[in-house]
Amino acid sequence: MTERLQVEVTGACVGSGDCVETCPSVFVLGDDGFAEVREEVDLISHHEGIEEAADACPTAAIEVDG
Amino acid sequence: MSERPTVAYDPHDPGIINNPFDFYDEAREKCPVFHSTKYDGFWSIMRYDDVKEAVSLDDGKTFSSAVPGITAFPLAFRRTFPYMPQEFDAPEHRQYRGLITHFFGKSRVAKMEDDIRQVARELLETMSRETRPDLVQHFAVPFVGQNLMALLGLPRDDFAMLSSSATDIFHGRLDDPERAKAGSATLIQYIERVIEDRRQSPRSDDDFFTFLTRAEVFDRPLTHQEILGCGTLMINAGLETTVNGVGNSLWYIAHDRELRHRLQAEEKLLPKAIEEFLRYLSPLQLFGRSASRDVEFRGCAISAGEIVTTNFGSANRDESTFERADEYIPDRSPNRHVAFGCGPHFCLGAHFARLEMSVAIQEVLGHFPDYELDPEREVVMHPHGDLRGYWSLPAVLNGRRDARETA
């Protein structure tokens, strides 16, 4: 079975940057100061880091589906 | 042309502490950025969008947190070391904060729920035997204190001494600098003993202070001063803030019978109701930074080194962001309040604070569904208005009808 992973930063993001610090390969702060998922990143290979980032987020703004 | 509008505003004035909101409304409309001359002068930023901008972008380059004591004036004395991570700017702030975020992560905090609930139940059971029960002194203070001790791996009973030191610091800064200084010295001495103990007898890496003694930043171990700055911050940031969150909620519920009934009937309402308590009665009304350079902000000329406060309490009542902002709406959605701040310095303890508020409200309503404030005894607010909340909330635990019958 093919593993797939969807990661979304919701409107609850306050730009703390904790996800960027936890998992910089996947998350980045955009020009507006809020977090974004980097484009063209292999999310599966960073699954653990993504889960850690979602847990560290102080507003639970990272939704992981997969 | 840039201006320097001046308003005679004192956040610690008793009238303002009691009701700052009418003043906020007027300031947002007529003078949303202004300077006051009290406490050697400070600027206030009052509108939601402006507050968010001031605290979110270019961390440190315009408004800096890297001045010990800048967040909570007046400065009663000069602390010689910065709170870590709070009193740093990017890029150091990012590194320091990243070290400890996992201690406050959602899953670690969630695992503490049963213990937090047990603390609440023990305290409420004890309070039920008090002849003059007080929802803050007998419940919120020891509840928040004991939970913080558990989070930081400190002996549960030490909360009383630490809570009293923190009160000496925050109350003393207004009119008794020596008291503030003594409170700070006691707290420093305590944290230094903890650091020494963990160096001598390390515990697991899940123990906050053991972790700090082993942690590395910038390719070297944390210094004693950095750990001290972190430990003292945890105590001063983790006590009265959440005590206010709990106390303000219990005060409001006592005045709104319909809300109380809804909270008792609809379990799912509580998380939203808590966000609305945080917005409507923000435990921390304002926070200070220092201007890093001469800057023009919304047409105002702010000079390098001046104190600039972002007024979260006012931002959270801004009609341009929140419809019917002066009403408490328990299921308000969305509710993007700034009670925990915004941007890189967003409150690290937000998950913990929310969980504590949730358990506190559930357990108080569970144990004392008819509690009311005692009409015979006055509520007392803290003597400062930046941290805004109750010092004493005398209550009749089983409702006034009961009290009359047993009198």
Task: Explain how this protein is built.
The complex is a heterodimer of chains A (66) and B (407). With 66 residues, chain A is of the alpha+beta class. Chain A is built from 2 helices and 4 strands. Chain A has helices at 18-22, 47-56, and strands spanning 6-9, 27-29, 35-37, 62-65. In chain A, the strands form 2 sheets. In chain A, strands 1-4 form a two-stranded antiparallel ribbon. The longest helix of chain A has 10 residues, at 47-56. Chain A is globular, with a radius of gyration of 11 Å. The mean pLDDT of chain A is 93. By secondary structure, chain B is α+β, with helices and mostly antiparallel strands. Helix content of chain B is 49%, strand content 10%. Chain B has helices at 14-18, 21-30, 48-56, 92-100, 106-110, 113-127, 135-152, 159-175, 177-200, 208-214, 224-238, 240-255, 257-265, 269-280, 312-315, 350-367, 400-406, and strands at residues 33-36, 42-45, 63-64, 216-217, 220-221, 286-291, 295-297, 300-302, 307-311, 372-373, 380-381, 390-392, 395-396. In chain B, strand 7 and strand 8 form a beta hairpin. In chain B, helix 6 packs across helix 16, helix 8 runs antiparallel to helix 9 and helix 12 runs parallel beside helix 16. The radius of gyration of chain B is 21 Å and the shape is globular. Classes of the chains: A alpha+beta (66), B alpha+beta (407). Chains A and B meet through helix 1 and helix 2 of A and helix 4 and helix 5 of B.
Which descriptors apply to this entry?
heterodimer, A: 66 residues, alpha+beta, two-stranded antiparallel sheet, two-stranded antiparallel ribbon, 4 strands, 23% helix, 21% strand, globular, B: 407 residues, five-stranded mixed sheet, 17 helices, 13 strands
